[in-house]
Design goal:
The complex is a heterodimer of chains A (574) and B (284). With 574 residues, chain A is α/β, with parallel strands linked by helices. Chain A folds into 4 domains: 175 residues, Pyruvate-ferredoxin oxidoreductase, PFOR, domain III (Pyruvate-ferredoxin Oxidoreductase, domain 3), CATH 3.40.920; 181 residues, Thiamin diphosphate (ThDP)-binding fold, Pyr/PP domains (Rossmann fold, 3-Layer(aba) Sandwich), CATH 3.40.50; 70 residues, no CATH class; 108 residues, Rossmann fold, CATH 3.40.50. Chain A contains 19 helices and 21 strands. In chain A, a hairpin with a 6-residue loop joins β2 and β3. In chain A, α3 crosses α4. The radius of gyration of chain A is 26 Å and the shape is globular. Chain B has one domain: Rossmann fold (3-Layer(aba) Sandwich), CATH 3.40.50. Helices cover 29% and strands 16% of the residues of chain B. Chain B has an 8-stranded mixed sheet with strand order 2-1-3-4-6-5-8-7, sandwiched between helices. The longest helix of chain B is centred in the N-terminal third of the chain and has 14 residues. Chain B is globular. Classes of the chains: A alpha/beta (574), B alpha/beta (284). The interface between A and B is large, with 68 and 55 residues. β15 of chain A pairs parallel with β2 of chain B, so a sheet runs across the interface.
Chain lengths: 574, 284
């Protein structure tokens, strides 16, 4: 029997849910388990009801399931809202603090507050007592927890480390001694030992950008993208990066374009609302052919929407944002690996084609923790596609928009080898100076749009997972990858012929490859975290293929495998 | 030796007699007299008649969006702080559409020279009120006359402790050239607000109107170190209009705060992906 358990921590903002969740996740990972976590939080610093959920499994996992095995209830709302998620699980609760009207076998009282005071003389350790109790129920090897607590609190001094260990041990012992069903959640030791990373999507994007040599990041903080800006800011001195908090998103992207024009790799980070303000500068990147990387972490809109929740609702906007027509590229990672490698790749595409490139994530991917193999930095290539001084030295003049068969003009940076570089938001000719003649407009527009066709050839085909010659192909993009893989596994084990086609290279779509892959496909079902099937529309438009059924979700929450399967049943797809 | 001729002669789209010609002349002279080669100079601009200026002299040009002459200038300065960067803009571009960037770049204090062609009217869109238009001025849009209080860019800049605040006049090229030279030499954001007649659309603030009122502050014993006095001077308008350097506060620039620039311009750096390995270990 495989271990596959979910622990949910519920409480108010400010109660330390994240610390509990992260300590649990790290402890399980240390012992060799695969771990996946999600967060559900409201846009407030104190109060409200939030949850942090940790799933552990022997098999690789990239999605959350709906059944909860252990609920650590730090507030009454945890019980009101999540008791129904427990079937044969247990609620860890301190009934000295939270009154339970009808006690039954589902509840296990742990006097967290009292133990914390008795053992450490301070109630702040009650969360650590809860962590210990949860692991006690599982008869988990305490040593892993001890190691994680030591690492987590080392900077705060020996006394705090010792108190945390004492509190955890007391909670652990209390559970082992008092829980009626000792080791109900006996966990099977995983076979492969640690060496892997536990990482959130946002951190992986930041690392990808650093690996690619980003030197300038200008952004305005906006949930759920801020983590990328914060991570790079923390490493900026070490990696020679300037991170500037712009006065608004308009300034942010314009600053990025100035830096990129002058010769460094530059990016911005934002969410949909901030990107609205960047639309004008996106067009500027388009007409001036200035490379830029835009990390856009989606959350439900319109306007302020649901600031801390998830959605894939900005695709059609990003596809068409800004007036006029110009090439752009959209990449959508589905895993932390994708976040790392695709962000690095985004810089290469941006500089090769001299276009804006989007890395589109969402709150779910941004904030969830995944276990994955250590990224291989030797796979990161840096292709700047800039003219060298040698290539320039024989030139009599340098024209930024020189016409070439590919539409890509050789790019120099201002002042290089004594040349000047001229760019203009007006239609311009090869020199970069304003030119409104019709013949020139045709030449320049064709030149820019030519690059889109060329770019299509570099877009990777979608990944196919699952049954060969499937009756049903589930299509998805970006962050739905994890839940959809699990759906394929579940349905395949039930004897259905299902596969999953996952897109990370979203625009321009590699149309020929897609048509080849789906030449003999059965039913096509597109699964997206939005209300209108935005990717499905793009897919149909570009490939001419029909999507037979749309599965959609736009309530602010991410997909679980169960949710998708229920939807497929409702639509009589299965 | 750099000469004015090195910056070339270009055909312009400006109206004959426009104050822009004088400002262009002053910028070219200032750059030549400071020995700046065209390839060492970057001019950024937004949109408006003023913002066409970078196209009319040989230099690096980033002619961006309306109101956005400053943000790309900051980005470029970070990328290559050896460039001499001038943001060329107008009263509508800088004080209206780009007001937020004006305010916050004064706070940021990058080593950039901000030249604002201030003709108190919209030229490119043919004669609507600008943020600095006089009260009561009638236009095709402001039929009842302007009733929004005019923005006083100098008072605003001094109130924000802008590190260099000055005003020139397009009708006094000698003086304007010296002012632009000082502004370029100043380390930090240097504002040069340039009074400029618009021969086509501003029939109120004409060459004659300005000429009758402007005076050089240098001749009136003004100390640019005194912020309160500078503020007082900045309020003078109707009868007498002061020209010259109102206020100077030598303070750390944006770039001074960026230690990572001390080893040389960013554009010369080479990336090393494997350096990220040490960070990856912290996730294990």
């Amino acid at each position: 029997m495989n271990t596959d358990l979910v622990i949910k921590v519920g409480g108010a903002a400010g109660q330390g849910l994240q610390t509990i969740g992260v300590v649990l996740a790290k402890t399980f990972k240390k012992s060799g388990f695969n771990v996946f976590t999600t967060q559900f939080y409201l846009s407030r610093v104190r109060g409200g009801h939030n949850t942090y959920q940790v799933r552990i499994c022997n098999e690789p996992i990239r999605a959350m399931t709906e059944k909860v095995d252990i609920l650590i209830a730090l507030d009454e709302a945890s019980i009101e809202e999540h008791l129904n998620e427990i079937s044969d699980g247990v609620v860890i609760v301190d009934t000295d603090v939270i009154k339970i009207e009808q006690m039954n076998d589902s509840f296990f009282h742990v006097p967290m507050l009292k133990i914390a005071k008795d053992v450490c003389g301070n109630k702040i350790y009650s969360n650590t007592v809860a962590i210990g109790a949860a692991l006690g129920l599982m008869c988990f090897d305490f040593e892993y927890l001890e190691r994680v607590l030591t690492a987590t609190f080392r900077k705060k001094g020996d006394e705090i480390v010792e108190n945390n260990i004492k509190a955890a041990r007391a909670g652990y012992d209390h559970a082992k001694m008092n829980f009626p069903l000792v080791c109900q959640f006996d966990v099977k030791e995983p076979s492969d030992k640690d060496g892997r990373m536990l990482i959130a999507g946002n951190d992986a994007v930041a690392l990808g950008a650093l690996a690619a040599g980003v030197q300038f990041l200008a952004a305005y903080p906006m949930t759920p993208s801020t983590g990328v800006m914060a991570y790079i800011a923390a490493k900026a001195d070490e990696f020679n990066v300037v991170v500037e908090q712009a006065e608004d998103e308009i300034a942010a992207l314009n600053m990025v374009l100035g830096a990129s024009y002058a010769g460094v790799r530059a990016m911005t980070t934002t969410s949909g609302g901030g990107f609205c303000l960047m639309a004008e500068a996106l067009g500027l990147a388009g007409i001036t052919e200035t490379p830029a990387v835009i990390f856009l972490s989606q959350r439900p809109g319109p306007a302020t929407g649901l600031p801390t929740m998830t959605e894939q609702g900005d695709l059609q906007f990003v596809l068409t944002a800004a007036q006029g027509e110009f090439p752009r590229c959209i990449l959508a990672p589905g895993t932390p690996d994708d976040c790392f490698y695709l962000t690095a790749k985004a810089f290469n595409i941006a500089e090769k084609f001299q276009i804006p490139v989007f890395v589109m994530s969402d709150q779910y991917l941004a904030d969830s923790l995944f276990t994955c193999e250590k990224f291989d930095t030797s796979k990161i290539e840096i292709d700047r596609h800039l003219l060298s001084d040698d290539e320039l030295k024989d030139k009599k003049e340098y024209n930024r928009y020189e016409l070439t068969p590919t539409g890509i003009s050789p790019r120099a940076i201002p002042g290089q080898a004594g040349f000047t570089v001229v760019v203009d938001s007006d239609e311009h000719n090869e020199t970069g100076h304003l030119d409104q003649t019709i013949d020139n407009r045709i030449l320049m527009n064709d030149k820019r749009m030519k690059k889109l066709k060329l770019l299509e050839k570099e877009m990777e085909a979608p990944k196919l997972y699952g049954y060969k010659k499937a009756d049903i192909t589930l299509i998805g993009w970006g962050s739905t990858y994890g839940p959809l893989l699990e759906v394929v596994d579940i349905l395949t084990s039930e004897g259905l012929a299902v596969d999953h086609l996952h897109f990370t290279h979203v625009y321009p779509l590699p149309v020929d490859a897609i048509k080849d892959m789906l030449a003999n496909a059965g039913k096509l079902v597109c699964v997206e975290n939005n209300a209108t099937g935005q990717f499905a529309r793009l897919f149909e438009c570009e490939t001419g293929l029909r999507i037979d059924e749309n599965v959609l979700r736009s309530d602010g929450k991410p997909y679980t495998p169960e949710h998708i399967i229920r939807a497929l049943e409702q639509k009589k797809v299965i | 030796m750099v000469s004015v001729e090195d910056f070339g002669e270009y055909e312009t789209e400006w109206c004959p007699g426009c104050g822009n010609f004088m400002i262009l002349k002053a910028i070219k002279r200032a750059l030549a007299e400071l020995g700046k080669e065209p390839h060492e100079v970057l001019l950024t601009s937004g949109i408006g008649q003023s913002s066409k200026l970078p196209h009319y002299l040989k230099c690096n040009v980033f002619n961006g969006l309306h109101g956005r002459s400053l943000p790309p200038a900051i980005g470029a300065k970070v990328a290559n702080h050896e460039l001499t960067v001038l943001a060329v803009t107008g009263d509508g571009d800088c004080y209206g559409e780009g007001g937020n960037h004006f305010v916050h770049n004064i706070r940021r204090n990058p080593d950039i020279t901000l030249i604002v062609h201030d003709n108190q009217i919209y030229g490119l869109t043919k004669g609507q009120a600008s943020p600095t238009s006089e009260l009561g001025m009638k236009t095709k849009i402001q039929n009842h006359g302007v009733f929004n209080t005019p923005l006083n860019p100098l008072s605003l800049a001094i109130s924000l402790d802008c590190s260099f605040v000055s005003r020139g006049f397009a009708g006094d090229v000698e003086h304007l050239t010296e002012l632009i030279k000082k502004a370029i030499q100043h380390k930090g954001l240097s504002l040069v607000d340039v009074l400029q007649p618009c021969v086509s659309f501003n029939k109120l603030n004409t060459f004659k109107w300005y000429s009758e009122r402007v005076y050089r502050m240098e001749e009136k014993d003004h100390s640019p170190k005194d912020r309160v006095k500078a503020f007082e001077r900045s309020l003078e308008w109707d009868e007498r209009i002061p020209l010259g350097v109102f206020y100077v506060n030598e303070k750390a620039t944006f770039e001074d705060h960026l230690d990572v620039l001390s080893s040389g311009p960013f554009v010369k750096n080479k990336a090393d992906p494997e350096k990220v390995d040490e960070l990856l270990d912290s996730f294990i």
